[in-house]
């Protein structure tokens, strides 16, 4: 889940893109990049790091032009440590194209081979996004053989791109001398929205928070399979380019990834999280009698709305027992288990008085590898809690995600192939309460107003093992994700919690 943005304006866009990327920083913290277009020339700056570190004043000055795009990266393919895989990607032919991608191609391996042997195109990194750009470039080249690029030939190229790509993709591309192209995969897994500024500026972004926070008014979502082209005169053209599109947004966006003040495909993320707290309340009541819980404490940051609603419905005081160091990034999206584990304690510190002698119910939005929960439960005990219960607003994460969230191997998931009781023992809490899959889907759907886009379902694959694209080649995924270079892990930091050593660690 990277964050992507594109802008077509009449005024310089460098600051606007920077501001939008800052608003999308929660979606990717490993690398950032911006490209602007002035006349027919692209200007690019990208590097590893957070937005504030990547762009210094001198870099910003070197990004002229009133059209541009940007990305914050959270690697899910290729090599997390390679500077070359920071986005945007560039190809010089046809026309000159730069591209940013949020998502994950599940057939990148096969496509890379096909690009080389059939299309005679070279890719120089292990990134699936570079593959995507080359497929688009090849199809655009084919559809504009007579030399004309217009919305018709552009949409014909996107139709062919959809035929070749598998997996999830929300894309923004700039075509030198022509304009900005945005499209979304036929299953609508990753989000993409369009907004408009008072001066006529168009902005396309992963989340509505980037539109609103930078002074744009939300206009519409890019529909699954649809392509939107904004030419350099500021005219928007749109066409459905997929044969049978359906809308199945990623459930994990609502559970964790997106900012609560965003609305994705008509569903308010905040309302979805409140509703998750409501359904979770019923599950808690059936496991731990509410009169045995003295206080409800959220695990900052993402679980807060669910925890507030849960406390309200159970009539139990809601207290802040952990203070978050806001200068430490989101731990889940860090590359490598060692760094994630260390960051939990750096990031969260206890307020001892909220725990001493009390039975506490801790609430998190999700338990993935169990890194956070295990540390937190231990911290609550060290602070003197009598009983430590833990509730998760999402069901157990049991299956790998192949659509752009970095949980590629089932072995690193604490709940894979384990009963709830086994997970409880590993985490070390006195009771563990999970949301159930149907309850989660109902809760999130309930957050959609009647007049929003009609959903066909969710991509909830990491919870229910159902892959909406229906064509998952597990061997290819393993090759693509499981074997990709990651931070060296010591034995102590090994990514899956081990049952036998629990008391020693
Ligand atoms: O079981 P785990 O593998 O530890 O992953 C789950 C945890 O990671 C996320 O928090 P994170 O610190 O990334 O971000 P947040 O501040 O938005 O909650 C999520 O909210 C859970 O707390
Ligand atoms: N999370 C994402 O959207 C990642 C995009 C792309 N697969 C990459 O690894 O760079
Ligand atoms: Mg968290």
TrEMBL record:
SUPFAM superfamilies: N-terminal nucleophile aminohydrolases (Ntn hydrolases) (SSF56235), PRTase-like (SSF53271)
InterPro entries (alphabetical): GATase_2_dom, Ntn_hydrolases_N, PRTase-like, PRTase_dom, PurF, PurF_N
Pathway: Purine metabolism; IMP biosynthesis via de novo pathway; N(1)-(5-phospho-D-ribosyl)glycinamide from 5-phospho-alpha-D-ribose 1-diphosphate: step 1/2
Reaction catalysed by this enzyme: 5-phospho-beta-D-ribosylamine + L-glutamate + diphosphate = 5-phospho-alpha-D-ribose 1-diphosphate + L-glutamine + H2O
Enzyme Commission numbers on file: 2.4.2.14
List of residues binding Mg(2+): 302, 364-365
Coiled coil: none
Region feature (Disordered): 481-505
Cofactor(s) recorded in Swiss-Prot or TrEMBL: Mg(2+)
PANTHER family hit by this protein: AMIDOPHOSPHORIBOSYLTRANSFERASE
Protein's recorded name: Amidophosphoribosyltransferase
Protein species of origin: Variovorax soli
Origin organism lineage: Bacteria, Pseudomonadati, Pseudomonadota, Betaproteobacteria, Burkholderiales
């Amino acid at each position: 889940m990277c964050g992507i943005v594109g802008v077509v304006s009449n005024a310089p866009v460098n600051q606007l893109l920077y501001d939008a990327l800052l608003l999308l920083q929660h979606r990717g913290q490993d690398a950032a990049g911006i490209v602007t277009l002035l006349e027919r020339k692209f200007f690019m700056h990208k590097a590893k790091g957070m937005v504030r570190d990547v762009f210094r004043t001198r870099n910003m000055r070197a990004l002229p032009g009133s059209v541009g795009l940007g990305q914050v990266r959270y690697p899910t393919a290729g090599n997390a440590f390679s500077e070359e895989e920071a986005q945007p990607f560039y190809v010089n032919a046809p026309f000159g194209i730069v591209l940013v991608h949020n998502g994950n191609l599940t057939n990148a391996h096969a496509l890379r081979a096909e690009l080389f042997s059939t299309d005679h195109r070279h890719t120089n990194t292990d990134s699936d996004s570079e593959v995507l750009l080359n497929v688009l470039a090849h199809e655009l080249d084919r559809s504009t053989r007579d030399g004309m690029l217009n919305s018709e030939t552009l949409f014909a190229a996107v139709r062919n791109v959809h035929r070749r790509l598998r997996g999830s993709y929300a894309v923004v591309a700039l075509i030198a001398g022509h304009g900005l192209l945005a499209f979304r995969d036929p299953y609508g897994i990753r989000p993409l929205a369009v907004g408009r500024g008072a001066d006529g500026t168009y902005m396309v972004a992963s989340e509505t928070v980037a539109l609103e926070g930078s002074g744009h008014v939300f206009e519409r979502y890019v529909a699954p399979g649809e392509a939107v082209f904004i030419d350099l005169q500021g005219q928007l053209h749109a066409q459905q380019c997929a044969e049978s599109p359906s809308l199945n947004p990623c459930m994990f966006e609502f559970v964790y990834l997106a900012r609560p003040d965003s609305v994705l495909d008509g569903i308010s993320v905040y309302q979805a999280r409140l509703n998750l707290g409501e359904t979770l309340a019923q599950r808690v009541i059936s496991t731990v009698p509410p009169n045995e819980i003295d206080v409800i404490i959220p695990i900052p940051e993402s679980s807060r709305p669910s925890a507030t609603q849960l406390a309200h419905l159970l009539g139990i005081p809601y207290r802040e027992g952990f203070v978050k160091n806001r200068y430490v990034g989101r731990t889940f999206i860090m590359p490598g288990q060692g760094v994630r584990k260390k960051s939990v304690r750096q990031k969260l510190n206890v307020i001892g008085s909220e725990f001493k002698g009390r039975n506490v119910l801790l609430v998190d939005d999700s338990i993935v590898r169990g890194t956070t929960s295990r540390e937190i439960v231990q911290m609550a005990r060290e602070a003197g809690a009598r009983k430590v219960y833990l509730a998760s607003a999402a069901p157990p994460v049991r299956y790998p995600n192949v659509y752009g969230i970095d949980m590629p191997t089932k072995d690193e998931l604490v709940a894979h192939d384990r009963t709830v009781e086994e997970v409880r023992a590993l985490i070390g809490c006195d009771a563990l309460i999970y949301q159930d899959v149907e309850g989660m889907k109902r809760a999130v759907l309930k957050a959609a107003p009647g007049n929003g886009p009609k959903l066909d379902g969710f991509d909830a694959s990491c919870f229910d093992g159902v892959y909406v694209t229906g064509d998952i080649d597990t061997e290819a995924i393993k090759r693509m994700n499981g074997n990709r270079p990651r931070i060296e892990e010591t034995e102590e930091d090994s990514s899956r919690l081990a049952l036998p050593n629990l008391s020693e660690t």
